[in-house]
Design brief:
The structure is a single chain. It is built from 3 helices and 7 strands; from the N terminus they run βαβαββαβββ. It is of the alpha/beta class. Helix 1 crosses helix 2. The radius of gyration is 14 Å and the shape is globular.
Length: 146
């Protein structure tokens, strides 16, 4: 499914629609260059999951946690993760569970380690404001429209 957003607000709104459809146990793997909108769409996903909009980039922390009553969102930055050993040492697999959602930036670095059923979200910066966003790996997002 391909979507086009014309502003950060529209990217957040798309993320919110995605977040409302998550029930736990999902892994979201982002693909996209620096500034493509990965943290912006994660902010929307967090809102849709009922966790608020206080999402920040996990660049320096490796993982940020947003805990709710029913679900927790773990937002990872895999930029510096270069091997399965690094991924294991970061505790990535310990965060997976039916009461959590993992959103991983720079997933290209861990692609061989991602579980079956991973949802891939590719963000492409078309211009300063416009993003082309492609979601693969799960058909439930077809109904959210553009």
């Amino acid at each position: 499914m391909k979507f086009v957003t014309d502003s950060a607000e529209e990217t957040i709104a798309l993320g919110e629609k995605i977040g409302k459809l998550l029930h736990g146990g999902e892994v979201i793997a982002y693909r996209g260059d620096l500034g493509a909108g990965k943290t912006t769409i994660t902010r929307g996903i967090s809102i849709g999951m009922g966790l608020g909009d206080e999402v920040t980039s996990p660049t320096f922390a490796l993982v940020n946690e947003y805990r709710g009553e029913k679900l927790t969102l773990y937002h990872f930055d895999m930029y510096r993760i270069t091997s399965a050993e690094d991924l294991e040492a970061a505790g990535f697999f310990d965060f997976m569970g039916e009461d959590s959602v993992i959103a991983a930036e720079w997933s290209e670095n861990i692609e061989d380690e991602l579980p079956e059923g991973t949802i891939f979200i590719e963000l492409r910066r078309v211009s300063d404001d416009v993003r082309e966003i492609t979601i693969t790996g799960d058909d439930r997002f077809e109904a959210i429209g553009n």
